[in-house]
Amino acid sequence: MAMDKRNPSKIDLERSLKPAGSYLDSLSGFADLLGTIRQAEDAAKELLEEASPQTGVGSGSQTQAEKTHDGSSAGQPPLSPESAHPGSSAEDSCAKPLIEAGAAEPDAGVSDEQAGSGGRSTEELLEQLDSLVGLSNIKQSVKSLINYVKVRKLRKEKELPNPPLSLHMVFTGNPGTGKTTVARILAELYRAIGVLSKGQLVEVDRSGLVAGFVGQTALKTTEAVNSALGGILFIDEAYALAPDTGGANDFGREAIETLLKMMEDHRDDLIIIVAGYSGPMERFIGANPGLESRFNRYFTFEDYNSGQLYEIFSSMCAKSEYILKEDAREFAMEHFEAIYETRDECFGNARHVRNFFENIVAVQSDRVSALEEHTRDALAEVVCEDLRKAALA
Question: CA-based, 20 to 30 A from 88: which of 74, 113, 172, 351?
């Protein structure tokens, strides 16, 4: 039997390269196999070029062999999710901003695409602000704030110094006074003048920031803030983060500390608005020195008077094409005068008007459904008795 006189290390290497059960007997056989594979690839390429002259497969186009493993062309980076699906982004999967009941519909806001390509103009947004019922002091404060920001930008362009600016705000007032609606307009206005990059409004309360276990609140608060970057984070009933009965196990203070840190980290593209009743909000701002230094702009939302409540109600009726009889209009005016005079700290303002309107629609539907003839006028007419029953509901 002939002795193998090759170098022992070469023999060991050769054995290690042999697959189990393979028919390859040597490294030279392995090389022959690679050569055969390359010849087969070249033959397949030539066959494709000859068989498909009309499809552009040839010297002027890319073959499968010239494609990368992910389907992109050789020498070109693979498609990102954004380029593969124009108009989409990673933010499309984020939670959508919450919309207050009775406020503008979601499509009244600015989308990410609009924010990047214009959206509504400053003039259009100020017109919407002016169209809101009442809120004369809020409208003037917003316009003054916008003018202040514009002048700061002009001073910067002229290389003039600007004092430190904080745009974080405190909204105080009873429910239903338009706080969320104004915040949404503000977000778009700041986007329109270049203060914010997107202009979305993300609405949360304590439950959206505070978790029930140690270590989870900071993560939950961070997630909420990240979803609002480029826009406004609106924290309703913010005083619940610092309850006067809170103890060592209350995680609201952890949420506040996380908010303060992120406000500093993202001060160039984030605004936070905290909202709630006047008294509790004063206690909340005083609960942490960092809150007092950052929230120095206060907007007070007064209750709507009886005339403004009726104006809101009349607008709801007109929008839905309900026509009030004369005695029904008189009853509505008297109703709003009575609830305004007897209001307390829980007065619902526009929310009460919406509830009253919805009760009227339900009562009117019961009455009209019993009629023998359902004419257009009958379907639209609202009588005084409809309002009487709705007021008792």
Answer: 74
